[in-house]
Design brief:
The chain is of the alpha/beta class and about 400 residues long. The protein has 14 helices and 9 strands. It has a domain of about 260 residues: 3-Layer(aba) Sandwich (Rossmann fold). About 55% of the residues are buried.
Protein backbone atom coordinates (compact mmCIF):
# COMPACT_ATOMS: atom_id res chain seq x y z
CA UNK A 1 0.00 0.00 0.00
CA UNK A 2 1.08 3.60 -0.46
CA UNK A 3 2.28 5.09 2.81
CA UNK A 4 2.26 8.81 3.42
CA UNK A 5 5.60 10.45 2.72
CA UNK A 6 7.24 13.21 4.68
CA UNK A 7 6.46 15.61 1.88
CA UNK A 8 2.74 14.95 2.10
CA UNK A 9 2.38 14.95 5.88
CA UNK A 10 1.97 18.17 7.77
CA UNK A 11 4.30 17.94 10.75
CA UNK A 12 1.80 18.77 13.45
CA UNK A 13 3.01 19.51 16.96
CA UNK A 14 -0.08 18.95 19.06
CA UNK A 15 1.86 17.54 22.02
CA UNK A 16 1.80 14.20 23.77
CA UNK A 17 -1.86 13.83 24.62
CA UNK A 18 -4.88 12.16 23.12
CA UNK A 19 -6.88 15.33 22.63
CA UNK A 20 -4.90 16.37 19.59
CA UNK A 21 -6.66 19.63 18.77
CA UNK A 22 -7.12 20.97 22.33
CA UNK A 23 -4.85 23.66 23.77
CA UNK A 24 -2.66 22.28 26.53
CA UNK A 25 -3.31 23.53 30.07
CA UNK A 26 -0.85 25.83 31.80
CA UNK A 27 -1.84 24.89 35.34
CA UNK A 28 -3.75 22.31 37.37
CA UNK A 29 -7.11 24.18 37.45
CA UNK A 30 -7.03 24.45 33.66
CA UNK A 31 -6.27 20.74 33.40
CA UNK A 32 -9.08 19.78 35.74
CA UNK A 33 -11.53 21.96 33.82
CA UNK A 34 -10.59 20.44 30.47
CA UNK A 35 -11.16 16.98 31.94
CA UNK A 36 -14.44 17.99 33.59
CA UNK A 37 -15.73 19.35 30.28
CA UNK A 38 -15.44 15.85 28.75
CA UNK A 39 -16.31 13.78 31.82
CA UNK A 40 -19.32 11.52 32.19
CA UNK A 41 -20.47 10.28 35.61
CA UNK A 42 -19.23 7.00 37.05
CA UNK A 43 -22.56 5.20 37.28
CA UNK A 44 -23.49 1.87 38.92
CA UNK A 45 -22.85 0.31 35.50
CA UNK A 46 -19.15 0.45 36.43
CA UNK A 47 -19.35 -0.11 40.18
CA UNK A 48 -22.21 -2.52 40.89
CA UNK A 49 -20.39 -5.79 41.59
CA UNK A 50 -23.47 -7.95 42.15
CA UNK A 51 -22.77 -9.93 38.99
CA UNK A 52 -19.06 -9.16 38.75
CA UNK A 53 -18.37 -11.34 41.80
CA UNK A 54 -20.02 -14.36 40.23
CA UNK A 55 -17.38 -16.99 39.33
CA UNK A 56 -16.81 -16.81 35.61
CA UNK A 57 -14.18 -16.91 32.87
CA UNK A 58 -12.08 -14.28 31.11
CA UNK A 59 -14.08 -12.61 28.38
CA UNK A 60 -17.45 -13.30 29.96
CA UNK A 61 -19.87 -10.40 29.69
CA UNK A 62 -21.18 -8.91 32.92
CA UNK A 63 -23.48 -6.26 31.47
CA UNK A 64 -24.00 -4.05 28.42
CA UNK A 65 -25.92 -0.86 27.70
CA UNK A 66 -26.57 1.25 24.64
CA UNK A 67 -25.07 4.74 25.01
CA UNK A 68 -26.45 8.06 23.76
CA UNK A 69 -24.25 10.55 25.65
CA UNK A 70 -21.13 10.25 23.47
CA UNK A 71 -20.25 12.93 20.93
CA UNK A 72 -19.95 10.58 17.97
CA UNK A 73 -20.59 11.12 14.25
CA UNK A 74 -24.16 10.75 13.04
CA UNK A 75 -25.17 7.21 12.17
CA UNK A 76 -22.71 5.42 14.46
CA UNK A 77 -24.04 3.56 17.48
CA UNK A 78 -22.22 3.01 20.75
CA UNK A 79 -22.42 0.54 23.61
CA UNK A 80 -20.71 0.17 26.95
CA UNK A 81 -19.75 -3.28 28.13
CA UNK A 82 -18.43 -4.67 31.40
CA UNK A 83 -16.56 -7.97 31.35
CA UNK A 84 -14.18 -10.32 33.12
CA UNK A 85 -10.48 -10.07 32.34
CA UNK A 86 -7.14 -10.89 33.96
CA UNK A 87 -4.42 -8.81 35.58
CA UNK A 88 -0.69 -9.41 35.16
CA UNK A 89 -0.79 -12.32 37.63
CA UNK A 90 -3.90 -13.79 35.99
CA UNK A 91 -6.26 -12.77 38.79
CA UNK A 92 -9.85 -12.11 37.75
CA UNK A 93 -10.58 -8.40 37.26
CA UNK A 94 -13.58 -6.45 36.00
CA UNK A 95 -12.92 -4.28 32.95
CA UNK A 96 -15.06 -1.81 31.04
CA UNK A 97 -15.02 -0.95 27.33
CA UNK A 98 -17.06 0.71 24.64
CA UNK A 99 -18.12 -0.61 21.24
CA UNK A 100 -18.62 1.57 18.16
CA UNK A 101 -20.66 0.25 15.25
CA UNK A 102 -20.60 1.77 11.75
CA UNK A 103 -23.71 3.36 10.30
CA UNK A 104 -26.14 1.14 8.43
CA UNK A 105 -26.99 -2.54 8.60
CA UNK A 106 -24.25 -5.03 9.43
CA UNK A 107 -22.91 -7.04 6.49
CA UNK A 108 -23.32 -10.80 6.31
CA UNK A 109 -21.09 -12.30 8.98
CA UNK A 110 -21.00 -9.06 10.97
CA UNK A 111 -18.81 -5.95 10.97
CA UNK A 112 -15.06 -6.62 10.75
CA UNK A 113 -13.74 -5.78 14.22
CA UNK A 114 -10.76 -3.83 15.55
CA UNK A 115 -9.80 -4.33 19.21
CA UNK A 116 -8.48 -0.89 20.13
CA UNK A 117 -5.93 -0.15 22.87
CA UNK A 118 -5.74 3.52 23.88
CA UNK A 119 -2.73 5.58 24.85
CA UNK A 120 -2.19 7.02 28.32
CA UNK A 121 -5.33 8.70 29.61
CA UNK A 122 -4.26 8.68 33.25
CA UNK A 123 -4.27 6.07 35.99
CA UNK A 124 -7.31 7.00 38.11
CA UNK A 125 -10.80 5.52 37.81
CA UNK A 126 -12.34 8.58 36.04
CA UNK A 127 -9.72 8.37 33.26
CA UNK A 128 -11.51 5.65 31.27
CA UNK A 129 -12.15 6.68 27.65
CA UNK A 130 -15.68 5.25 27.96
CA UNK A 131 -16.27 7.92 30.61
CA UNK A 132 -15.37 10.73 28.19
CA UNK A 133 -17.82 12.30 25.79
CA UNK A 134 -15.33 12.23 22.91
CA UNK A 135 -14.04 8.73 23.78
CA UNK A 136 -10.56 10.26 24.23
CA UNK A 137 -9.32 9.41 20.71
CA UNK A 138 -12.39 10.61 18.85
CA UNK A 139 -10.56 13.43 17.07
CA UNK A 140 -7.36 11.43 16.69
CA UNK A 141 -8.53 8.98 14.08
CA UNK A 142 -10.68 6.57 16.09
CA UNK A 143 -13.92 7.63 14.39
CA UNK A 144 -12.30 6.95 11.03
CA UNK A 145 -12.47 3.20 11.68
CA UNK A 146 -16.29 2.97 11.85
CA UNK A 147 -16.49 5.44 8.96
CA UNK A 148 -14.48 2.87 6.99
CA UNK A 149 -16.83 0.03 7.93
CA UNK A 150 -14.83 -1.34 10.85
CA UNK A 151 -16.43 -1.91 14.24
CA UNK A 152 -14.32 -0.98 17.27
CA UNK A 153 -14.23 -2.56 20.71
CA UNK A 154 -12.11 -0.36 22.95
CA UNK A 155 -11.08 -1.52 26.39
CA UNK A 156 -10.60 1.04 29.15
CA UNK A 157 -8.07 -1.27 30.91
CA UNK A 158 -9.08 -2.45 34.36
CA UNK A 159 -8.82 0.18 37.08
CA UNK A 160 -9.96 2.86 34.65
CA UNK A 161 -13.72 3.06 34.84
CA UNK A 162 -13.89 0.08 37.18
CA UNK A 163 -12.73 0.11 40.81
CA UNK A 164 -9.25 -1.17 41.64
CA UNK A 165 -5.71 -0.31 40.66
CA UNK A 166 -4.78 0.21 37.02
CA UNK A 167 -1.57 -1.72 36.25
CA UNK A 168 -0.27 1.10 34.08
CA UNK A 169 2.31 0.19 31.43
CA UNK A 170 2.10 -3.55 32.02
CA UNK A 171 2.02 -5.43 28.73
CA UNK A 172 0.37 -8.52 30.24
CA UNK A 173 -2.47 -6.73 32.02
CA UNK A 174 -3.25 -4.50 29.07
CA UNK A 175 -2.90 -7.35 26.58
CA UNK A 176 -5.44 -9.47 28.46
CA UNK A 177 -7.87 -6.56 28.63
CA UNK A 178 -7.70 -6.15 24.85
CA UNK A 179 -8.06 -9.85 24.05
CA UNK A 180 -10.96 -10.51 26.39
CA UNK A 181 -12.87 -7.43 25.22
CA UNK A 182 -13.39 -9.27 21.93
CA UNK A 183 -15.31 -12.20 23.42
CA UNK A 184 -17.35 -9.84 25.60
CA UNK A 185 -18.30 -7.69 22.61
CA UNK A 186 -19.46 -10.75 20.71
CA UNK A 187 -21.63 -11.79 23.65
CA UNK A 188 -23.07 -8.29 23.98
CA UNK A 189 -23.89 -7.86 20.29
CA UNK A 190 -24.52 -11.31 18.82
CA UNK A 191 -24.52 -11.46 15.05
CA UNK A 192 -23.36 -7.86 14.58
CA UNK A 193 -19.61 -8.46 14.79
CA UNK A 194 -17.36 -10.64 12.69
CA UNK A 195 -15.55 -13.43 14.47
CA UNK A 196 -12.38 -12.22 12.74
CA UNK A 197 -10.54 -9.36 14.42
CA UNK A 198 -7.36 -7.28 14.43
CA UNK A 199 -5.66 -5.53 17.36
CA UNK A 200 -4.55 -1.89 17.09
CA UNK A 201 -3.13 0.51 19.66
CA UNK A 202 -1.26 3.77 20.18
CA UNK A 203 1.40 4.63 22.78
CA UNK A 204 0.58 2.63 25.93
CA UNK A 205 -1.82 0.80 23.64
CA UNK A 206 0.94 0.22 21.09
CA UNK A 207 2.70 -1.93 23.67
CA UNK A 208 -0.62 -3.60 24.54
CA UNK A 209 -1.43 -4.44 20.91
CA UNK A 210 2.04 -5.90 20.28
CA UNK A 211 1.58 -7.91 23.47
CA UNK A 212 -1.68 -9.26 22.05
CA UNK A 213 0.32 -10.70 19.15
CA UNK A 214 2.64 -12.43 21.60
CA UNK A 215 -0.26 -13.80 23.64
CA UNK A 216 -2.08 -15.01 20.56
CA UNK A 217 0.99 -17.02 19.58
CA UNK A 218 0.21 -19.10 22.67
CA UNK A 219 -3.60 -18.94 22.48
CA UNK A 220 -3.55 -19.61 18.72
CA UNK A 221 -6.97 -18.13 18.07
CA UNK A 222 -7.67 -18.71 14.35
CA UNK A 223 -9.88 -15.59 14.20
CA UNK A 224 -7.06 -13.23 15.19
CA UNK A 225 -5.58 -11.68 12.03
CA UNK A 226 -2.75 -9.43 13.19
CA UNK A 227 -1.66 -6.34 15.09
CA UNK A 228 -0.92 -2.67 14.48
CA UNK A 229 1.38 -0.96 17.00
CA UNK A 230 1.59 2.84 16.69
CA UNK A 231 4.21 4.81 18.65
CA UNK A 232 4.22 2.02 21.19
CA UNK A 233 6.12 2.03 24.48
CA UNK A 234 7.85 -1.11 23.30
CA UNK A 235 11.21 -0.04 24.75
CA UNK A 236 10.27 0.90 28.30
CA UNK A 237 13.79 1.81 29.36
CA UNK A 238 14.03 4.31 26.51
CA UNK A 239 10.65 5.69 27.58
CA UNK A 240 11.53 6.21 31.27
CA UNK A 241 15.21 7.09 30.72
CA UNK A 242 15.43 8.75 27.31
CA UNK A 243 18.70 10.09 25.95
CA UNK A 244 19.07 13.88 26.29
CA UNK A 245 18.54 14.40 22.59
CA UNK A 246 15.31 12.40 22.77
CA UNK A 247 13.74 14.93 25.19
CA UNK A 248 11.19 12.58 26.78
CA UNK A 249 8.11 13.44 28.84
CA UNK A 250 8.84 13.22 32.60
CA UNK A 251 5.27 13.98 33.63
CA UNK A 252 4.45 10.35 32.78
CA UNK A 253 6.87 9.06 35.39
CA UNK A 254 4.64 9.55 38.47
CA UNK A 255 2.06 7.47 36.57
CA UNK A 256 4.75 4.82 36.07
CA UNK A 257 5.27 4.89 39.85
CA UNK A 258 1.53 4.31 40.26
CA UNK A 259 1.71 1.35 37.87
CA UNK A 260 4.58 -0.13 39.87
CA UNK A 261 2.49 0.12 43.04
CA UNK A 262 -0.47 -1.50 41.28
CA UNK A 263 1.70 -4.36 40.00
CA UNK A 264 3.76 -4.78 43.18
CA UNK A 265 1.55 -3.77 46.16
CA UNK A 266 4.47 -3.66 48.61
CA UNK A 267 6.24 -1.06 46.49
CA UNK A 268 6.56 2.41 48.03
CA UNK A 269 6.22 5.16 45.41
CA UNK A 270 8.33 7.47 47.58
CA UNK A 271 11.36 5.32 46.80
CA UNK A 272 11.24 6.71 43.24
CA UNK A 273 9.40 10.03 43.56
CA UNK A 274 11.19 13.07 44.98
CA UNK A 275 9.35 15.37 47.37
CA UNK A 276 8.51 17.58 44.38
CA UNK A 277 7.44 14.56 42.37
CA UNK A 278 5.15 13.30 45.12
CA UNK A 279 3.46 16.69 45.62
CA UNK A 280 0.79 16.07 42.99
CA UNK A 281 0.90 12.27 43.06
CA UNK A 282 -2.20 11.82 45.28
CA UNK A 283 -4.24 13.92 42.84
CA UNK A 284 -3.00 11.93 39.83
CA UNK A 285 -3.58 8.64 41.62
CA UNK A 286 -7.18 9.33 42.61
CA UNK A 287 -9.07 11.64 40.26
CA UNK A 288 -6.98 13.63 37.77
CA UNK A 289 -6.16 12.44 34.26
CA UNK A 290 -3.77 13.25 31.40
CA UNK A 291 -4.34 16.98 31.15
CA UNK A 292 -3.86 17.57 34.86
CA UNK A 293 -0.84 15.28 35.00
CA UNK A 294 0.71 17.24 32.17
CA UNK A 295 0.00 20.58 33.87
CA UNK A 296 1.09 19.42 37.32
CA UNK A 297 4.65 18.74 36.18
CA UNK A 298 4.87 21.32 33.41
CA UNK A 299 8.48 22.44 33.01
CA UNK A 300 9.83 19.88 35.49
CA UNK A 301 12.72 17.62 34.56
CA UNK A 302 13.06 13.96 35.42
CA UNK A 303 15.77 14.80 37.96
CA UNK A 304 13.33 17.13 39.75
CA UNK A 305 10.46 14.62 39.81
CA UNK A 306 12.31 11.34 40.30
CA UNK A 307 15.03 10.28 42.70
CA UNK A 308 18.55 9.57 41.38
CA UNK A 309 19.05 6.15 39.77
CA UNK A 310 15.37 5.29 40.19
CA UNK A 311 15.38 3.04 37.13
CA UNK A 312 17.84 0.69 38.87
CA UNK A 313 15.51 -0.20 41.75
CA UNK A 314 14.40 -3.87 41.87
CA UNK A 315 10.72 -3.13 41.18
CA UNK A 316 11.60 -1.00 38.15
CA UNK A 317 13.96 -3.67 36.87
CA UNK A 318 11.21 -6.26 37.33
CA UNK A 319 8.85 -4.06 35.30
CA UNK A 320 11.42 -3.66 32.54
CA UNK A 321 11.93 -7.42 32.39
CA UNK A 322 8.20 -8.14 32.29
CA UNK A 323 7.62 -5.49 29.61
CA UNK A 324 10.40 -6.61 27.27
CA UNK A 325 9.22 -6.65 23.67
CA UNK A 326 10.68 -8.15 20.52
CA UNK A 327 11.87 -11.42 22.04
CA UNK A 328 8.72 -13.54 21.98
CA UNK A 329 7.19 -14.92 18.76
CA UNK A 330 4.18 -13.04 17.42
CA UNK A 331 1.19 -14.68 15.75
CA UNK A 332 0.18 -13.20 12.45
CA UNK A 333 1.29 -10.03 10.71
CA UNK A 334 2.65 -7.09 12.71
CA UNK A 335 2.68 -3.45 11.58
CA UNK A 336 4.93 -1.10 13.59
CA UNK A 337 4.63 2.66 13.08
CA UNK A 338 6.45 5.56 14.75
CA UNK A 339 7.05 9.27 14.24
CA UNK A 340 10.48 10.74 13.64
CA UNK A 341 9.70 13.77 15.80
CA UNK A 342 8.16 11.90 18.74
CA UNK A 343 9.32 13.46 22.01
CA UNK A 344 7.15 11.22 24.24
CA UNK A 345 8.00 7.74 22.98
CA UNK A 346 11.41 8.08 21.32
CA UNK A 347 11.40 6.59 17.81
CA UNK A 348 14.91 5.21 18.34
CA UNK A 349 13.60 2.77 20.93
CA UNK A 350 10.75 1.68 18.67
CA UNK A 351 13.12 1.13 15.75
CA UNK A 352 15.59 -0.74 17.97
CA UNK A 353 12.85 -3.06 19.21
CA UNK A 354 11.66 -3.66 15.65
CA UNK A 355 15.24 -4.51 14.63
CA UNK A 356 15.52 -6.92 17.55
CA UNK A 357 12.21 -8.55 16.62
CA UNK A 358 13.42 -9.05 13.06
CA UNK A 359 16.63 -10.66 14.33
CA UNK A 360 14.47 -12.99 16.42
CA UNK A 361 12.55 -14.13 13.36
CA UNK A 362 9.45 -11.97 13.86
CA UNK A 363 8.03 -10.86 10.53
CA UNK A 364 6.89 -7.23 10.64
CA UNK A 365 6.37 -4.12 8.58
CA UNK A 366 8.02 -0.99 10.00
CA UNK A 367 7.51 2.62 8.93
CA UNK A 368 8.71 5.94 10.35
CA UNK A 369 6.82 9.14 9.56
CA UNK A 370 9.44 11.90 9.24
CA UNK A 371 9.09 14.80 11.64
CA UNK A 372 5.85 13.75 13.31
CA UNK A 373 5.35 13.97 17.08
CA UNK A 374 3.48 11.44 19.19
CA UNK A 375 -0.18 12.15 18.52
CA UNK A 376 0.28 13.55 15.01
CA UNK A 377 1.72 10.13 14.11
CA UNK A 378 -1.55 8.51 15.17
CA UNK A 379 -3.66 11.10 13.35
CA UNK A 380 -1.71 11.03 10.11
CA UNK A 381 -1.26 7.26 9.94
CA UNK A 382 -4.92 6.37 10.48
CA UNK A 383 -5.73 5.76 6.83
CA UNK A 384 -2.58 3.62 6.46
CA UNK A 385 -3.68 1.57 9.46
CA UNK A 386 -7.16 1.12 8.03
CA UNK A 387 -5.84 0.06 4.62
CA UNK A 388 -3.48 -2.48 6.24
CA UNK A 389 -6.26 -3.84 8.46
CA UNK A 390 -8.65 -4.21 5.53
CA UNK A 391 -5.96 -6.18 3.70
CA UNK A 392 -5.89 -8.62 6.62
CA UNK A 393 -9.67 -9.14 6.46
CA UNK A 394 -9.41 -9.56 2.68
CA UNK A 395 -6.79 -12.29 3.13
CA UNK A 396 -4.16 -10.46 1.13
CA UNK A 397 -0.49 -11.45 1.49
CA UNK A 398 1.47 -9.69 4.21
CA UNK A 399 4.61 -7.88 3.05
CA UNK A 400 7.26 -7.59 5.76
CA UNK A 401 10.28 -5.32 5.40
CA UNK A 402 12.82 -6.60 7.90
CA UNK A 403 16.32 -5.73 6.76
CA UNK A 404 15.27 -2.59 4.93
CA UNK A 405 15.03 -0.05 7.77
Amino acid sequence: MALLSGATIMALSAGQHAFGQTALPKNIPEGLKLEADQALPITPFYTDNTLANTPSWPGALIRAEKVTDYAIPAGMTAWRILYHSLDAERHDVTTSAFVLLPAGPAPAGGWPMVAWAHGTSGVAQPCAPSLMKDLYYGDEGLFEFPKAGLAVVATDYHGEGTPGAHQYMNKLAQGYDVIYSVAAAHEALPGLLSQKWVADGHSQGGMASWSVGEMEQQMNNPDYLGTVSVSGTVDMLDFIAPKPEEIGAPFYFPMVAYGLKARYPDFDVKTVLSKEGYEHYPLIATKACWFTGYAAYLGKTSSQIMKPNWTKLPAVQAMLKEDRMGDEPVKGPLMVLTGGGDVSVPPGGVRKTAHKACRNGIKLFFHLYPGLDHDPTMINSTQDQIAWIKDRFAGKPFNENCGTF
